[in-house]
Every structure is written in C-alpha cells, then in structure tokens.
Design brief:
Chain B: This is Branched-chain amino acid ABC transporter permease. The complex is a heterotrimer of chains A (557), B (356) and C (269). Chain B is mostly helical. Chain B is built from 13 helices and 4 strands. In chain B, 51% of the residues are buried. Chain C folds into 2 domains: 179 residues, Rossmann fold (3-Layer(aba) Sandwich), CATH 3.40.50.300; 78 residues, no CATH class. The chains are: A mainly alpha (557), B mainly alpha (356), C alpha/beta (269). At the A-B interface, helix 16, helix 17, helix 23, helix 25 and helix 26 of A face helix 1, helix 6, helix 9, helix 11 and helix 13 of B.
C-alpha cells in the first residue's frame, strides 16, 4: 500500500518535473524572469514554478481522504519535482546545450533554482520551496469546504493585479497606485492588502450564495427587476471604457471585441449546430477585404465608397460566402467538415496572397488607406472612439445569438448537433438549418473583419492565417462551446491577456494548444458552461474514461 | 405547413437543389481546368523535357506524401479518427535530425560514410517521430476514446499547435538547412540523385510496412482491430497495444518521410509540417482513407498534379506567377474530393460510417 | 380507408436485396405489425417509408399521394413519425426541449418574429409549450419536463421518444420494437399506451416487434417478412398457423410436422 502510494507520488512528481522541463526549455519560464509580481523577489517565473510544484502536490494529495495522507504524499511529489528542476539546472550549467536548445542558458539555471544556481545552495533553496509548496497545497486541500478555493482565488487575484501593473497603474488614482505598486509589481504591503481584500471579497461572495437568508433576500427582488438593473450597470461600465482607458488599452479592447464577434459567430456554427469550422478566418478575411476593396482608392475600381455603405455590403458578401462554404459541406461528417473548411480558409488566404489577384486585392503588400467611419462631422478615428462601434456590434451579435437560441431555429440547430438523423425525422430541414447557421455565423465574422480593416486602416494576407481560426476555436473551447458568456471570458483570457503581456506573445499558440487539450481532458464543457451542453460533453467524457482501458467504443459519434 | 410540389425520386438516389448547385460549381471548375490545359498545350511554352521534369519532381514529392499519408490512413483504419497532429509528427523527426546531420557533417563522418550516416539519420528521425506519435496518442487521444467525435478532433488540433510551438520554443523559429550529402549530388540520367534516393527509400519503407502488416503478430493485430475492433477484442487482441503500435509505425514512417523531405527541400523549420500534413491527408482521402495502397496511389497522384498543375492549368490563361497557386490546387483537390468522392478513388476499404 | 400503401417496393444494397416487391397495405386506425427474423428487411422498410432510403423500385403512397423518395423532413411533415429500436433521444437536451423540437413543423413564426419577440412569437411559443406539456402528460411524464433526457430511466426514455413523435401530430406512427428491453410490467404499460394512441388519438400504428406476445396481443393485422419478401399477411391467428411463417422462424422441417404446428403463444414457449 505504502509502496504504491509512494510510487504514485513519485510518478506525479516526475510528470510535473517533465512539464517544468518543457516550459523551461521552450522559454516560457525564463521569458518571465524580469516580470516582477510582488516586491523585488517574486517574479512571474517563480510564481509559475511554485504553482507547478503546488499542482504536483495537489494532484497527488487529492486522491486521499485525510490531511494525514494528503500532506506527506503531496510533499513527496513536490520534492521530486524540485529535484527534477535542479537536475535540469545542473545539465544546463555543465553541458553546453545552447547550440541546440535555444533556452538552455545559465540564466535558466538561475531562474530554476530561485537564484541559487546549480550548486548546493540552489538545491537547498529548491527543496525548501518544494517542501513549502507541498505543505501549502496539501494544507489548502485539507481545509474545510470553501476556504481552499477562497485562498487560491485570492492568491490568483493578487498575482493578476501584480501582473497587470503597467496596465492598471496609470488608471488608478495616484494614491492607490503609489501604495499598491513598487518599482515593479506589487509592493509587499500592497500585496498583503490586496490578498486580504480579495479573501474577504471571495468569502463574502461564497457566503452570499450559500446563505439561505441572503438567497431569499435576493430572491425577494424579482428577476424581472434584478436582471435589467444588472444589465444596465454592466452596460454603463462597458460604455465608459473609452473614458478611463488609454490608447493602448482601448486598442486591446477593440481587438478583444473583434474576437468576441468572431467567437459569437463561430458559436452559432460550432456551439449551437455542432459543426467544427476550422476555416472561420475566411469570413473575417472576406469582410475585411470587402471593406478594403470598396473604400480604399488603391485597388480595383477607381471609385471609393463611404464606410457606412461598404459595411452592409461587406456583411452581405460574407453571408454569401457563408452559403458558398455551407452548401458543399452540408453532407459531410464532422471530421471531414473540419478539414474541408480549413481548406476553404487556406484557399482564400492563398488567393489573396497571389500575384494573380494583386491588381484587385493588393497581393502580399495588402491594401492600405481604408476608410474610417464618420457620423456627420465626427470622424471615428481613435481606438477609443472605435471602441463604441465595436461594443455596439458585439452587443448586437449577443442579442441576436440569444434570440436565435430561444427560437425554433435555435432548437433545430441543437437537434442537428445532437442527432442529425433524428432531427430530420422530426421534420427539420437540415439544409436550411445548417446553411442558416453558416450564413449567420459568417456574418458576425464578416462584420468583425470589416471593422478590423477600418480600424487598422490596412489589410495584409498575413492577418488572415489559420491561426485566427484556431484562436477562435480555442476561445470557444476555453469558455465553453455554446455558452455566450464563455465567449467573452475566452476572448479576454486568450486575446486580452496576451496583448497585455508582451513576453507572452511568442507563447500564445503553445498555450492555445495546451488549452485545447487540457480543457477537453479535464473540463470539456469549458469554464462557463452552457447549461445543457455541459452535461453532454462531460458525461460523454466521463463515460469514455470509464470504458477507456479495455473499451469497446464503436457505435457512437 | 404546405409542401409545394414535393420533388420525388426513385432509382435509389435523391438529388436536391443544393447538390445541383454544388455539381454545377464542380463542373465549372473542371471546365476551367480543361480549357486552361488546352490553351497551355497549344501555346507550347514548355518543352517536353520540362514537363518530364515536372512529373519526376511530382513523383518524388508524391512519394513523400504517400509515406505520411500511410500514417493518417492507418490511424483512421483502427480508430476512425483523423490524427490532425500527424504533420507535426513528421516535422518533429525532420527538425530533430537536423542536429544529428549537422553533427555528422561537422565531424566529417558524413563525408567519410555517407550511406551509414543517411541510414542513421533515417532511423533517428523515425524513432523521434515515433516517440512523439505515441506520446500524442497516450496524452491527447487515449483518455478520450469513445467521446463524441468533436472532442478528439479538438485535442488533435491542440496537439498540433502544441508540438509546433514546442519545437519553435526549443530550437528557435529560424530556418535550418540540412548539410548536402555528397553522394546524392548531381544527376542520374534525367533524374536528380536525391529524387532517386527518395523514391527508393519510400519503396523500401513500403515493402517493410507490408511485410510488417502481413507477417508479424503485431501487424495481424492491427489488421484485426481495423476490421472490427469489438470482435478483435473478443478474440483476445490487446486493442490498446494494437492502437499504440499503429501510431508508432505511422510515426516512424513520418519520421523517415521527414528526412527524405529534407533531402529534397533542404530547409526545415517548425512550421514545415502543416502543408505536407494537409497534403498527405488529401492523398489519404484521395486514395480512400483506411486503404493502404490507396494512400500510396493518392500521394503519387497528388504530387504529380501539384507539380504540373500550376503550369498546365493556369499558364494558358496568362496568369501571373502561376506557381503561387500550387497550394491552391492542392487545397481545391482536398475540398473537391471531400465533396464529391469522400470514399476516395480506390474506395474506403475499411468502410465508413453507417450512413442511414 | 387505406392510409399507407407500398407496391412492388424494392431496395438493394450492392448485391443484397433488402426488400423485394413488397406490397403492404395499412388501413387507417389499424395496429399493424411487421414481423420477421433478423435481417428480414423490417428496418429497411421503415427507412424507405420515412424517406431515409430511396427505394430502387416501387411506390409508397400515403393517404393517396405518392411519397416515394421524398426527403425525410417532408415525409415527417406529412404526418409520419417514428421511434427507434435503440432509443435515439436528443440525450442532452431537456425533456421539454425534446418534444418542442418535435413540434418544429407546427410552430409558425418568422426569424424576424423570433428576433423581435413579437406577440406572434410569444403566442406560438406559449402554445407549443402547452402542447408539449400536454403530450408529456399523455405518456405519463408530467413533472419531468426539465430533466435531461439522458437521465430518465429506460422506460421513461421510450415514453419520451413516443411523446416526441406525437409532437409531429402524425397520422401514422412507426414504432421500432417499442418493448425491447422492457420487463413484463413495463411491456404491459407500453401495450396499453399503444392502444390509447389509436383509440384516443386516432393514430394508425405500424410496428416492428420481436415479442410475439405483444404482436399477438395488440395487432389487427400482421405482415411477415423474410429475406426481404412478404411471405404472409393476415390476422394474428392466421399468421400463426401459416406454414411458411413457421418455416421462416423455425427452419425447414418444422412445418412438415416435426415441430410445433403454430408459432408459440404466450405461455406455450
């Protein structure tokens, strides 16, 4: 029994250690060595390493019922991981691997050992931190019900605040900023205060939910009153963004908006109708290029149109493109559909890139001098002003999504997603259902593309690669396929955060890959699951796990 | 709701408007291609020798596609899923082996023993790709077996990008050039020596694969699982093991294809797996997915069309830089084959999904 | 009155003839069973009638008009609904949504109505929900509207499948082995439900069934298929004594006196 437990603990420690090797050698951990979160010592790299050790301990400990087993085995795992990290530090220091592995630098060794270097001192530091992380994780999971979660949430909140120093610093009142933040990251006092405040906040939130009295109190205000009030408040906050956010932040918000629009569009296709479209970027491109061709004096016809004329034309063109893609793939099964749409996306990009169509679409250099919108004498020019346009578009797309979801068309999409054959036997015309999903979904993408082209002022083929499609799929998967709030959360996490953190840009797609795999393995319904869809995926994966070892899993799908 | 003039059919099949439109589009494309070819041939810009070179190059390239396509087809055969990350499996072998090749070159071993070096590179690349393929199966696919089709497809896409950017992180985003192998320089009659080497390499690998599938117990297990997983399990075949073997063999061949690719194209990079991966998948579907000879035939056909296509189809129209449309042709073939003949030219030997 | 009629219906799969020259006449308000050994072509017959397969030859007429080769969703709208042998619900939608999807062809409002939530939309949705609840009550699932379909017990899933089929307001209901996998008590209830469908709602029932007890119990007419051909038709009693039927079920020789001279009745088997 003990041998087995020890073997399991060591195994998990090794796996976490290998994950640490991976993150180190691809450069993710050293990249954040300069990003200080709290005080001068706690960098983002260290936070990542500590999180890794704590996760190892948690993953080991969670299988046992009591603290008496959780803590020691968790600590063992964390220590094994620490040793693995130290081993990597040793290797990096004593072997010259830089010829092959870009990130096998002495700097990496220093980061890995928390500044101790590949020596006895470093080993002691690492083991000590491993021990603490293990104790911490084990202790947390041993705490009664809400506390573990509250503390972890508060800690994450604190780190996030430190991470966003450069963004939040200028926005907050001078007094707050100078108290919270030091030269880099949170000041120690700031960190403690933030952590305590966050703890109180999360505790309050939890007790509000759990407490029967408050639950009744909130229920006393009927939903018909409560919801509009909350919605109005949210709207006010959203609409006020240009007032307090600077140029940079507004720009980021615009880009998040473009992805929310695309996410809502793909959600109709993938989330509601269950059709995996890997070429969604094609619609974004069609929208952007229609806007470009119609309003820029550089290409095609000699005339140029006003933004407001071009915008509806762009959307309609995209709808037609959606039908054009939708028609041939109507009869395809899921995996072929994914590849065929990917093919469409690539064809669009390659055609746009080609010299053949250069006179019309600008070739590799793209098209510049795309029109900006103006209302009467007000020219919408800056990202701040543009934000309002993006916000209105997103709200409109959201509104449309909700209304469609609750209609018979939405139900026919769900039916197709669940069982295409039966859907037809229930009188649903699969041609109309699928085509409408493709067409409406495409229109959101086209709108997004048209706005994008206008804001940036130029389009180049490089902006329309497969990576955009993958980005949209990833944000849907992270938030939860079929879930509208999930789209927003996904876009904030996968588009907003990387835009804010420069070092992160390079590892964006690596993280998308991890997100796609990890979400499907551990939380297939996403962070904010759609109420119904959640059950479907989670159960199916549960079932798959149960029969996985000696499975006989034909017949489904 | 009334049904205006319902369209009725007998004779076993039904055609509706959406299908007619699709067929019309297909017809127009075919006409464009045919007309273009006629115009090109009449214009006579290219000599017979040039066409021959196109074909030879196409065959060499198609042979590589065929090798990768086998991996897709075998995995599809046993799991009925598309291993979207297979292109990256191919890339991982080629990328990693660069460092071995580079080392051999610097130490002078490559010059002294070119054939031994070549075999070492092929084996090394095969082993790396094999490891990657097996790891992908273990981590991203096996825990999700039996889940809805969408789920493993999404993890496959995830695995694909994870691998790409892992290699980018490890080795950098730059392009690396394989050292030249002295014995493979120059021409043999009208062929480049590298092309001959690639073709022979592919043939040997194919022969070994056939032997493996026909003559070994592991090969038998794979065939049994591909035929009927349930029955195979009942007959005592270790299904998990057969699946892992499939990934391993497919990965190994992808690794070999990686080195052969590097011989032809010299340069390797973290993103190099994407296009050959998609094209090999096209080849697999073209030949009939699940069908081993089909994958080989599909690879060759695709390679040749892709090689002569841009000149043959588009030159007659006077399109500028027609070679840029090479990948457009490949993707169009992919889409068309999925639309019009998803069972491929030679048929899906392992049978598709129940269609009712 | 004849509700459904097939004449010379033929369907081949490659070399295999799944249906050969099948003539079938289903009278209105009848409970009509189709029986036959495995692979006799019963489910193929259902798939041809519902439009999922297009027959190679022959004609299918439904209340006087030909529906041969009509698209499945159009067949459904004409009033032919079906259930499946291995229950096929929209497993992860709510019970109510399952039935609402069945009502799809009868909900009448435009996309614009849905987007603007016009009175017309609200009226149609309310009426649909009322009808769905009524149907659920009819099959005995009242109070379970917001369960996830997959979480219902087996018998309830069968009932839900029938309620969903009823939502199409069918004239003809095709039931594919409705009592498969049920215990005697559940089977008894299912038989009662099928009778009520005919008696209270006037729906004609065409039913595939393996359980002879059920077939003999509720059928007005029984058609026997074997290797894609109709080999007998008549009242349960007639069919039970038909030597060709006994041969098909029990193999050659049985009919010549070596075996029982009739198909086993409940209790005899």
């Amino acid at each position: 029994m003990i041998v087995r437990a020890a073997r399991r603990a060591i195994f998990i420690g090794l796996v976490a250690g290998i994950a640490g090797w991976h993150l180190s050698l691809v450069g993710l951990i050293p990249a954040f060595a300069q990003r200080r979160l709290v005080g001068d010592t706690l960098t983002f790299s260290y936070a990542l390493l500590i999180a890794l050790l704590a996760l190892a301990a948690f993953a080991t400990g969670r299988r046992y019922p009591g603290a008496a087993q959780r803590i020691p085995w968790g600590v063992l795992s964390a220590l094994v991981s620490s040793l693995m990290l130290f081993l990597l530090a040793l290797l990096v220091t004593h072997l010259n691997l830089r010829q092959i592995l870009l990130n096998a630098t002495p700097e990496l060794a220093r980061v890995l050992t928390f500044g101790g270097g590949a020596s006895g001192a470093g080993l002691v530091r690492l083991l000590l931190i491993g021990l603490l992380a293990g104790l911490f994780a084990g202790g947390l999971s041993a705490l009664p019900r809400p506390w573990g979660r509250v503390i972890v949430s508060a800690a994450l909140m604190t780190l996030l605040l430190g991470l966003l120093r450069d963004v939040l610093g200028p926005l907050l009142p001078r007094v707050v900023t100078s108290f919270l933040y030091g030269t880099a990251g949170l000041s120690l006092a700031g960190a403690v205060v933030t952590f305590l405040l966050a703890t109180v906040l999360f505790t309050l939130r939890w007790s509000l939910r759990a407490n029967a009295v408050t639950a009744r109190a909130t229920a006393a205000v009927p939903a018909t009153v409560r919801q509009p009030v909350i919605q109005a408040l949210l709207l006010l906050i959203l609409a006020s963004v240009p007032l307090w956010a600077g140029l940079f932040l507004s720009n980021v918000a615009d880009f998040v908006g473009f992805y929310i629009l695309m996410g809502l569009g793909l959600n109709l296709v993938l989330g509601f109708a269950g059709l995996l479209d890997l070429g969604y970027v094609a619609f974004f491109a069609v929208g952007a290029y229609t806007m470009a061709v119609l309003t820029s004096p550089e290409v095609g016809q000699r005339f140029t149109l006003d933004f407001w004329v071009a915008l509806p034309i762009a959307v309609v063109t995209t709808v037609l493109a959606g039908l054009l893609v939708g028609l041939p793939v109507l009869r395809m099964r899921g995996d072929y559909l994914a590849i065929a749409t990917l093919g469409f996306g690539e064809i669009v990009r390659l055609l746009v890139l080609s010299d053949w169509l250069k006179p019309y679409l600008g070739g590799a250099q793209g098209v510049t001098r795309i029109a900006r919108p103006s209302i009467a004498s007000w020219r919408i020019d800056s990202p701040q002003e543009f934000y309002l346009l993006v916000l209105i578009s997103c709200l409109f797309a959201w509104f449309l999504s909700v209304r469609l979801r609750d209609s018979r068309l939405g139900r026919s999409w769900f039916a197709i997603r669940e069982d295409e054959h039966v859907a037809q036997a229930m009188g649903i015309n699969r041609v109309t259902a699928k085509l409408s999903a493709f067409a409406i979904g495409a229109s959101f993408g086209g709108l997004s593309g048209a706005l994008f082209a206008s804001l940036v002022g130029s389009v180049v083929p490089a902006s329309f690669s497969l990576l955009v499609s993958i980005n949209v799929v990833a944000l849907l998967v992270l938030g939860g396929m079929g879930s509208l709030p999930g789209v927003v959360v996904g876009a904030l996490a996968l588009v907003g955060l990387p835009e804010l953190l420069r070092e992160f840009q390079e590892y964006r797609l690596l993280v998308y890959g991890i997100v796609l795999i990890a979400m499907m393995l551990f939380r297939p319904a996403g962070l904010l699951p759609e109420r119904i869809h959640r059950r479907e995926l989670e159960e199916a994966v549960e079932e798959a796990r149960e029969i996985a070892p000696a499975e006989i899993a034909t017949g489904r799908g | 709701m009334t049904i205006a003039a319902p369209r009725r059919f007998t004779g076993g099949r039904r055609i509706d408007i959406s299908q007619l439109i699709v067929w019309a589009i297909g017809g127009i494309l075919l006409a464009i291609v045919l007309l273009g070819s006629i115009l090109t041939l009449r214009a006579g810009h290219y000599t017979a020798a040039q066409w021959r070179d196109f074909v030879v190059f196409g065959i060499a390239q198609g042979a590589i596609y065929a090798l990768i396509a086998l991996g897709y087809t075998m995995v599809y055969g046993v799991l009925r899923m598309i291993n979207f990350a297979h292109g990256e499996v191919f890339m991982s072998g080629a990328m990693t082996t660069f460092f071995l090749a580079d080392y051999l070159n610097r130490s002078g071993f490559l010059k002294a023993h070119p054939w031994i070096s070549l075999v070492a590179m092929l084996l090394f690349s095969g082993l790396v790709s094999m490891t990657v393929a097996v790891l992908v199966e273990r981590i991203a696919y096996r825990p999700l077996r039996g889940a809805p089709r969408l789920v493993p497809l999404i993890t496959a896409v995830g695995a694909s990008f994870f691998l790409q950017y892992t290699f980018r992180g490890l080795f950098g985003s730059g392009v690396r050039a394989y050292p030249a192998i002295p014995v493979l320089q120059g021409k043999l009659w009208v062929f480049q020596k590298t092309q001959v080497a690639v073709f022979i390499g592919v043939l040997i690998t194919l022969a070994l694969l056939v032997l493996f599938l026909q003559r070994t117990r592991a090969g038998l297990a794979i065939r049994a699982v591909a035929e009927d997983r349930e029955a195979a399990a009942l007959m005592g075949v270790d299904v998990d093991r057969a699946i892992v073997t499939t990934f391993a063999v497919g990965g190994f061949m992808a690794g070999i294809a990686g080195v052969l690719y590097a011989l032809v194209f010299v340069q390797v990079q973290f993103f190099m797996g994407f296009l050959p991966g998609i094209k090999a998948f096209t080849a697999a579907v073209l030949g009939g997915i699940g069908n081993l000879p089909g994958a080989a035939v599909g690879g060759l056909v695709l390679g040749v069309i892709e090689s002569i296509g841009p000149s043959l189809f588009f030159d007659g129209y006077g399109i500028r830089a027609a070679h840029q449309l090479k990948d457009v042709i490949a993707f169009t073939i992919l889409v068309l084959i999925l639309i019009f003949r998803p069972t491929g030219l030679l048929g899906e030997r392992l049978g598709g999904e129940e269609r009712v | 009155m004849v509700l459904l009629e097939t004449s010379h219906l033929t369907k081949r799969f490659g070399g295999l003839v799944a249906l050969r020259d099948v003539d079938l006449v289903v009278q209105e308000r009848a409970i009509h069973s189709v029986i036959g050994p495995n692979g006799a072509g019963k489910t193929t017959l259902f798939n041809c009638i519902t439009g999922f397969l297009v027959p190679d030859a022959g004609d299918i007429r439904f209340s006087g008009t030909s529906i041969t080769g009509l698209r499945p969703d159009l067949v459904a709208r004409l009033g032919i609904a079906r259930t499946y042998q291995n229950i096929r619900l929209f497993r992860h939608l709510s019970v109510l949504d399952n039935v609402l999807i069945g009502l799809h062809p009868h909900i009448n409002y435009s996309l614009l109505d849905a987007i603007l939530r016009t009175p017309r939309y609200r009226r149609a949705e309310r009426a649909a929900e009322r009808e769905a609840r009524e149907l659920l009550a009819f099959v005995g699932l009242a109070g379970k509207e917001f369960f996830t379909a997959a979480n219902l017990p087996y018998g309830d899933q069968r009932r839900l499948e029938i309620a969903r089929a009823l939502a199409l307001r069918p004239k003809l209901l095709l039931l594919d082995e409705p009592t498969a996998g049920m215990n005697p008590h559940e089977t008894e209830e299912m038989i009662r439900l099928i009778r009520r469908l005919r008696d209270e709602r006037g729906i004609t029932i065409l039913l595939i069934e393996h359980d002879m007890k059920v077939v003999m119990n509720i059928s007005d007419v029984v058609t026997v298929l074997d290797f894609g051909e109709k080999i007998a038709e008549g009242t349960p009693e007639e069919v039970r004594r038909d030597p060709r039927v006994i041969e098909a079920y029990l193999g050659r020789g049985a009919a010549s006196g070596l075996g029982p001279s009739t198909l086993p009745l409940p209790g005899e088997a």
